[in-house]
Write a structure and sequence with these properties.
Elements lengths: L13 H11 L21 E3 L2 E3 L3 E3 L15 H12 L4 E2 L4 E3 L18 H18 L7 E7 L24 H4 L11 H20 L4 E4 L6 H6 L12 H4 L1 H13 L4 E7 L6 E3 L12 E3 L23 H12 L4 E5 L7 H4 L16 H18 L4 E4 L9 H10 L5 E4 L1 H5 L3 H7 L14 H7 L11 H4 L2 H11 L1
Parallel strand pairs: 3-4, 3-13, 4-6, 5-6, 6-7, 7-8, 8-11, 11-12, 12-13
Antiparallel strand pairs: 1-2, 9-10
Helix pairs in contact: 2-3, 5-8
This protein binds flavin mononucleotide and iron/sulfur cluster.
């Protein structure tokens, strides 16, 4: 089956959606009707390790490329965090990726956690809580973390157009993309030792300003994720599993010693596939081609985890081993993502329309959705002690509530996590639990403009649907840039 694929907005009922999923051979639970609290499984509170989240909606981290060059939040950042607070979700997974030091920023506008910026990052959390109190209710069962990162080979700390990659090993395809030359130095073991300390200091800072947990980011091609595929790196951080997880292990030891009481979670790319590119055969001047995998001589080894719908016997074996490693260290919070927005966005954030640096979907985006949710299910089944946040729901659009409540009821995941949806329609979780009525005009239709804008050097936001962006100078500038 090739595109164009049926638009979700044209599917009239859950019965029609189920029929279409059956035709595609996809298994995905979906209730007939939206349930409100207290009947909805999404309204059930959950407690663990003395922690508590008041319901099963989670908000994924969503960066806006809109901090100051010093790494402080701006009004745009504050507005996004406020929206996370009024969403009604009780689990805020990380807010957005925050760099632990300057050279690890993915762009010159990424937030940076240091002593100077600490007060302004603290106020993000406080504003989020205030918005929650005003629009939703008491915030005592709100659970808020901060995502800590180093962007590794995708670092661009000083200029938007200037990659300054810090890689762990030579990669046969990605080196070309981020302009790594043969003689560019890799991250040395002693530099990694220092970086571990920087992560621990950052976590301690996050604890002092009230965050209940930190996410040590291991997804989307950034440094934490790259460790997991450093199979042929020499030395103590490469090769066997124990070495590839040493970075995280040392950070965890440091956090336990320096910030006792601070919980830790990990957002994981649980599987990965080859980098993709637009097929030149189907590309035109005005339209990106359909995605095809890059060519690779021999078997492609630089992926952690296999496509759950692929041919591997135990596709999630790597991820299960990793989550078991976390559980052995009393880390129960895992957020299951996959791949990378830079080199295989169709698996990582399934969309009807590609971002400007992407390609037309090489598969029905619903396959990507179900693949990602199935990964969460497989990990939850193999590691029932883990508290799993699922990713991949936004593409389901009008059917997000019916699918999310069924997934939580049937134990595919503990929390239904939403990302892009919250940029266009932040209060959907609250609407679902209180009235069960959706504002259809606000539902994200996966136009990908929130990814295209930063790829073109602008701040991110929902330019097509959020009037704050649509009707602003930013919106005007974005439309000009896009049409140009
Ligand atoms: C504009 C934008 C910013 C994002 N920023 C982050 C981030 O800072 N950290 C992260 O782990 N994921 C980030 N993501 C990925 C989302 O958290 C999420 O995994 C992805 O959008 C898929 O979920 P969805 O289908 O609900 O949107 C970002 C995605 C978008 C579109
Ligand atoms: S720009 Fe808006 S509608 Fe488009 S994908 Fe992003 S959030 Fe969704």
């Amino acid at each position: 089956m090739t595109g164009p694929y049926p638009r979700i907005s044209k599917i009239k009922s859950t019965a029609e959606l189920k029929g279409y999923l059956d035709k595609l051979g996809l298994e995905l639970p979906c209730d007939e009707a939206i349930l409100t609290a207290p009947d909805s499984p999404l309204s059930n509170p959950i407690e663990w390790n003395g922690q508590r989240a008041g319901n099963r909606w989670a908000i994924h981290p969503m960066e806006g490329w809109d901090g100051t060059t010093e790494g402080k939040p701006t009004d745009l950042t504050r507005r996004r965090w406020k929206n996370f607070g009024l969403s009604g979700a009780k689990f805020i997974w990380g807010g957005e990726a925050v760099a632990v030091r300057h050279d690890g920023r993915a762009n010159p506008n990424q937030l940076l956690i240091n002593d100077t910026n600490l007060g302004s990052i603290e106020s993000l959390r406080e504003n989020l809580i205030a918005a929650h109190r005003e629009e939703v209710g008491e915030p005592d069962d709100l659970y808020i973390g901060l995502q800590l990162t180093h962007s590794g080979r995708f670092s661009r700390p000083n200029e938007k157009t200037k990659p300054e990659p810090r890689a762990l090993y030579p990669h046969p395809i990605l080196d070309r993309r981020v302009k790594i030359e043969n003689d560019d130095p890799l991250f040395s073991d002693s530099e990694i030792d220092q970086l571990i300390e920087d992560f621990v200091i950052a976590a301690k800072r996050a604890a002092t300003i009230g965050f209940q947990f930190v996410d040590i980011k291991h997804c989307h091609g950034y440094l934490g994720h790259e460790f997991l595929s450093s199979i042929d790196r020499e030395g103590k951080y490469g090769g066997i599993f124990e070495n590839r997880t040493r970075f995280l292990d040392e950070i965890l030891k440091g956090i336990r010693a320096e910030a006792p009481g601070l919980e830790v979670g990990v957002r994981l790319s649980a599987f990965d596939v080859l980098p993709y590119r637009p097929d030149p055969e189907t590309s035109t001047e005005r339209k990106l081609g359909i995605g095809i995998p890059e060519e690779c001589q021999g078997e492609y080894q630089y992926h952690f985890g296999d496509d759950p719908f692929g041919a591997a016997d135990e596709p999630l074996g790597d991820a299960v081993q990793f989550v078991q490693f976390l559980l052995d260290r009393d880390v129960r919070l895992v957020n299951i993502s996959c791949g990378s927005p830079y080199y295989n966005p169709h698996i990582q954030r399934p969309a009807y329309f590609p971002p400007s640096d992407g390609y037309q979907p090489p598969e029905e985006p619903l396959i990507g959705v179900v693949r990602l949710l199935t990964a969460a299910k497989m990990i939850k089944k193999a590691c029932p002690e883990a508290l799993v946040v699922g990713t991949g729901l936004t593409y389901l659009q009008d059917f997000i509530p019916q699918v999310s409540q069924a997934l939580v009821r049937e134990g595919w995941m503990d929390f239904a996590g939403v990302g892009r949806l919250v940029l266009s329609y932040p209060e959907l979780p609250h609407d679902v639990l209180t009235t069960g009525e959706l504002k259809r005009k606000k539902i994200c239709r996966t136009f990908s403009d929130c990814t295209t804008a930063p790829r073109k050097g602008m701040a991110s936001g929902c330019f097509p649907l959020d009037p704050y962006y649509k009707n602003s100078e930013l919106g005007e500038a974005f439309r000009k840039l896009k049409s140009g």
